[in-house]
Fold:
Amino acid sequence: MRDISAPPAVALEPPQPRRPRREIPYRPASDDHPLLLAHGGRLSVERLGTVPYRPTWELQDELAQQRRERRIGDRLLLLEHFPVYTIGRGGDDANLLASPERLREIGAEFVRIDRGGDITFHGPGQLVAYPIVELHDPLDLRRYVRALEGAMIDTAARFGVDAGRVDGLTGVWVAERRKLAAIGVRVKRGVTTHGLALNVNTELRWFDEMIPCGIRDREVTTLARELGHPVEMEAVEEALAAELARHFGLRVADGVPGIIGPAGAREQ
Structure:
């Protein structure tokens, strides 16, 4: 006899993956395929100047929580850091060649942080961008990283530098040998923190104290080195903000220069 105590079996469709498969090619943000939840909205750009690393890390976490709670929209922090070496989750401390004594001698910090990636350097002459944005569901972190790379490639092109990607390596490269920009991100409950570092006028001596990104057979370069002259940082900020907004599918909305205080308010 048929068991009528249980409902009849129903053929269920297989669940859709939350994260798209690796073989799906990169698609720029569009109305049909948005990258961010607020596609077509505004990207508020905050220029913070030169700031220490740890308070800025805390600020990112605060803004990211506000974004999750819908208290603020998508933000982009543009800044330079005082000299600091950071290592992400799973990074190898052996890639920092400088001893604690050497770090004190050159005036640099070392901080282990919660982003992906290995070791990187932040310091004067390097433009750092921290997008605090909410990704569209299903989350596609690889596509987000490709958007960061694409924005920096197009920014470099505005200044006459031909940069691109290298298969199997994250970041932006010149002639597939010289690393122009590094990427390390974190996504928590759909909102991003950390971001990218574009070498503009950075002194390359800082990279002698580490194995950049843990890659031994590549060099590091800057826009200034490739062009043979210094590059105006403000012009690069303008270009990068515009390209990030375009690759995100957003519109630039400038904030007010200065430091953001508690709950996103401006400190006087």
Observations:
- DSSP finds five helices and twelve strands in the chain.
- The CA atoms of residues 5 and 236 lie 69 Å apart.
- The first helix runs from residue 53 to 68.
